[in-house]
Write a structure and sequence with these properties.
alpha/beta; Rossmann fold; seven-stranded mixed sheet; two-stranded parallel sheet; globular
Length: 279
C-alpha cells in the first residue's frame, strides 16, 4: 500500500467515526495512552529543551517542535508534582509545527496546551540554552520535531549542557528528532555519549514515508554514524510505531508516540535514585 493510500485509509476511518477527534488514530497506535504508577516528585525540576528552527530550510514551510513531544512530557511531569521550565537553542518563542495541531492528529495534551496560558507563556519566553544552569534540574528532556534536525545536533552549547547533566547522573530523555541533541555530548572519559549507547529515534523509514527528506540530519543515520546501538520498531506506517529504550540514565523514544512513556520512565529513574542510600 502506498503512502497516499495509507493516509487516505487513516483519514477515511477518522471520518467514519462521525467526529473530529483523534480517537481512531489512537486505535491504530498514534499517540497511545500510557499510564504508570509513579511516586509524586514535588520538589523536583524538569527542563524540556526544544528547537529554535521555525522553517524547513531557508524560508521553507513552517515547522518547529512537534507539539505533543513538548506537551506530553510537560503534563506528565506537572501532574506528578514537578516544576517544568522550557528552554530552546536560541531562547524566546518556541516554534511549534502547525501540523501537530491539525484536527486529525492533535493530541489531548496539545488541546490542554491551547487552553493553558501559563504553559503558553513559558513556550513564548523560553530560556536560551546558553543561559541554562543544568545543575538546577533533576530531569532533562529533549523534544523533537523537524526543526530539531537543524540545530539540536549542531549545538556545541547543548552538547556541553548534556555532558554536564550526564556527569551528574541526571536522567536524560529524548524523543523522535530529540536524540540528535545527544550527538555533541561526551562521557566523563571524553568519548562521545552516543558511542555504544543503546537508543532509538525517528527512523529513516518514517522520514521517507512523510516525504520530508531535505533536513540536514536524519536521526537514525546520524546516530548510527556516531556509533550508537540503534533500535526501532516498525509498522506498515512508522508514524504508528512505538519503541522506548533505556540505557542507564538515558531514555529515548522512537517518535511522537513515546512522549508520555519516556517521561514516566525518567520519573521512575529519578525516584529510584532518591531511594538509594547516601554514600
Amino acid at each position: 500500500m502506498t503512502l497516499i493510500l495509507r493516509l487516505f485509509a487513516a483519514v477515511f476511518v477518522l471520518l467514519l467515526s462521525g467526529c473530529a477527534t483523534h480517537t481512531p488514530l489512537n486505535l491504530m497506535g498514534y499517540h497511545p495512552h500510557y499510564e504508570a504508577n509513579v511516586t509524586p516528585l514535588p520538589r523536583a525540576k524538569a527542563l524540556i529543551i526544544t528547537t529554535s528552527q521555525a522553517t524547513l530550510g531557508e524560508g521553507g514551510k513552517a515547522t518547529g517542535v512537534f507539539g505533543s513531544e513538548m506537551t506530553a512530557p510537560y503534563y506528565r511531569f506537572t501532574e506528578h508534582g514537578l516544576s517544568v521550565d522550557i528552554a530552546s537553542i536560541d531562547g524566546g518563542e518556541v516554534p511549534i509545527d502547525p501540523i501537530s495541531f491539525k484536527w486529525y492528529i492533535i493530541s489531548e495534551d496539545d488541546q490542554r496546551y491551547l487552553h493553558d496560558a501559563e504553559f503558553q507563556q513559558k513556550a513564548k519566553h523560553s530560556i536560551a540554552i546558553a543561559d541554562v544552569n543544568i545543575s538546577d534540574y533533576d530531569i532533562v528532556f529533549l523534544a523533537g520535531g523537524w526543526g530539531a534536525a537543524y540545530d539540536l545536533g549542531y549545538s556545541e552549547v547543548l552538547g556541553e549542557k548534556i555532558t554536564q547533566a550526564y556527569a551528574a547522573a541526571t536522567p536524560i530523555g529524548a524523543v523522535c528528532h530529540g536524540p540528535l541533541g545527544l550527538l555533541k555530548a561526551r562521557r566523563p572519559d571524553g568519548k562521545l555519549l552516543v558511542e555504544g549507547l543503546s537508543l532509538t529515534a525517528v527512523t529513516d523509514k518514517q522520514i521517507e514515508e512523510l516525504g520530508i527528506t531535505e533536513t540536514p540530519q536524519h536521526p537514525e543515520s546520524a546516530l548510527r554514524a556516531a556509533g550508537a546501538a540503534f533500535e526501532s520498531n516498525t509498522r506498515f506506517y512508522d508514524l504508528l510505531a512505538n519503541h522506548v529504550v533505556v540505557d542507564g540514565i538515558v531514555v529515548t523514544g522512537q517518535n511522537q508516540n513515546a512522549g508520555s512513556e519516556v517521561a514516566f520512565t525518567l520519573m521512575e529513574l529519578l525516584h529510584k535514585q532518591r531511594q538509594m542510600p547516601s554514600k
